[in-house]
Amino acid sequence: MTTRIDGNEIADSVKSNVESCVETLGKDGVKPGLATVLMSEDSASETYVSMKQQACEAVGIESYHYEIPANAPEETLLKRIKSLNSKPEIHGILVQMPVPDHVNEQAVLEQIDPIKDVDGFHPENVGRLTIGNPRFKPCTPHGVQKLLNAVNEETEGKDVAIVGRSDIVGKPMMNLLIQKAKTGNATVTVCHSRTENLAEKTRNADIVIAAVGVPELIDGSMLSSGTVVIDVGVNRVEADNEKGYELVGDVDFDSAKTKASAITPVPGGVGPLTISMLLYNTVKAASLQEG
Ligand code: GUN
């Protein structure tokens, strides 16, 4: 029997925990605030940001939104971040990635005050995570940890194959999983586009985490029986429907589920957790700044 991991249900329990933290902060006169900044005309990015704003409002976090034209100079974005850094009512700042090519992503991330960096992408926060003293765990890998926890999947002593080495998912996921902690203590293989014999790596793993952005790259033939499969991919592929596209993961769900002991669907798996962990980090940021 394969467990289909319900991300929405797990995300709801995180959200109700966040809601009670918002209430507690409210008793001290604090309303957590998150600023989202979008410098992109990509419709997927627009959708993600709007989902984040709605999720904030649903749990009582104030949401502030800023749009910067995609052709504006880098300085416009940097100035906006500087101004948000100095606003006390804004506890968290999220610049939706990717930014346009003419904007230096690192310069943007370094401009965000690390105490407001709810994505956990500032080098100071990346460093803290690496040495095992995280302030803000990046939302998607943290969400994956929550999912594994929720299905009682221990990582200690397990072989985990992460497919994808991005700064947003693959690398922080590796860092979380190798921590000396109950939610870590795994042996991690990070695979990427130059990895030779990917299927051998995934077949050797107890847990496969796909975060590579290639539609249905991982199929059942690449998995051993009993593997836990976490699909972080959200890929738009052309479809004959109203929208003209459908969402598919990095895993071929139908063939993978014949091998997996547990598997996340796309949509409805990791995605809802990413948003919940952002809310969690925003409340944490508010507590750190107002405490
Ligand atoms: N783009 C894709 N995922 C993310 C994320 O977690 N945070 C931000 N800021 N941008 C993203």
Key words describing this protein structure:
291 residues; alpha/beta; Rossmann fold; 2 domains; six-stranded parallel beta sheet; three-stranded parallel beta sheet; binds guanine; oxidoreductase; Bifunctional protein FolD
Description of the structure:
A six-stranded parallel beta sheet has the order 1-11-8-7-5-6. A three-stranded parallel beta sheet has the order 3-2-4, with helices on both faces. Strands 9-10 form a two-stranded antiparallel ribbon. It has two domains: 29-115, 3-Layer(aba) Sandwich (Rossmann fold), CATH 3.40.50.10860; 139-270, NAD(P)-binding Rossmann-like Domain (Rossmann fold, 3-Layer(aba) Sandwich), CATH 3.40.50. The protein is 40% helix and 17% strand. It is globular, with a radius of gyration of 19 Å. The chain starts with a strand and ends with a helix. With 291 residues, it is α/β, with parallel strands linked by helices. Strand 5, helix 7 and strand 6 form a beta-alpha-beta unit. Bound molecules: guanine. The site of guanine has 9 residues, from strand 4 and helix 6. Guanine (GUN) binds at residues 94-97, 119, 139-140, 168, 274.
Summed up:
GO terms for molecular function: methenyltetrahydrofolate cyclohydrolase activity; methylenetetrahydrofolate dehydrogenase (NADP+) activity. With about 290 residues, the chain is an alpha/beta fold.
